[in-house]
Amino acid sequence: MQIKSLQLKNPLILAPLAGYTDLPFRLLCRQFGAALCYTEMISCHGLVYDKNLMKNPDLAAAIIRQVCKKTVLPVSVKIRTGWNHDAIVAPDFAMMLEDNGASCIAVHGRTWTQGFGGPVDWQIITQVKNSVSIPVIGNGDITTYREAHAFLEKSGCDGIMIGRGALGNPWVFTPGGTPETLAERMEGLRHHLQLIRKLSDPDKILAKTKNHAGRYFKGITGGSSIRRQIYAAPTFADLLALTQSM
């Protein structure tokens, strides 16, 4: 997959997730096979009150032009299918983005008003792909490596962006998928915790770390008991010791 001058080794990409995609988690996902990892988003709610640039394509075009003027790096834009089901504008909006200098477009297959609920519309994502010549990345409820490649083929997209499906599950970027054994999942968590200890102040982000850690044991026998022990750990050292004792 080629985004301007950026050559990616595979089509699987970690989405920007506020509160989650910090440096340790991005590096972890890269090590597990993600070709590109986005940093956390800055919430537009804190910058402007009228927060949907999809309602104002002229303003969006001006912003994209100015950003592209200021960098030689590829500029990507992440959009939704539209504001609501009565305003599905993603294909036209994508053409506008390409015309104003965007090098890549990621499309979450839901409207703004849907949030993260309801079905993902991969037909609209395909329409976006067919409307532009720059790379298009599909996004929405992908939870396994197999699903990612199935939707890659179904949509014709150049890449697949995985968000919540990667939380506690960096194996989503590997052909083997999520391990079934407790030992393998614990090994993955320990590696994640080592990156956190190396690259951050672990006790300052203990609550966020526990949130990450608990997700590793979803759907596994004894997972609820392990999560209770994780959430009860008073310090990062205690949390790390807990993982090493299991």
Summarize the structure.
By secondary structure, the chain is of the alpha/beta class. Helix content is 41%, strand content 11%. The strands form two sheets. Strands 4-3-8-7-6-5 form a six-stranded parallel sheet, with helices on one face.
Structure write-up:
There is one protein chain. The chain is α/β, with parallel strands linked by helices and 246 residues long. 41% of the residues lie in helices and 11% in strands. The chain has nine helices and eight strands. It has helices spanning 23-31, 57-69, 90-99, 122-131, 145-155, 182-199, 206-215, 223-232, 236-245; strands at residues 2-3, 6-7, 12-14, 36-37, 76-80, 104-108, 136-139, 159-162.
**Straight-line distance between termini:** 40 Å
In round numbers, the mean pLDDT is 93
According to DSSP, the number of beta strands is: 8
Derived structural class: alpha/beta
> Which regions are unreliable across 5 or more consecutive residues at pLDDT < 50?
none
The helix count comes to 9
> What is the radius of gyration computed over CA atoms, rounded to a whole number of angstroms?
19 Å
> Overall 3D geometry?
elongated
Strand order of the largest sheet: 4-3-8-7-6-5
Beta-strand residue fraction: 5-15%
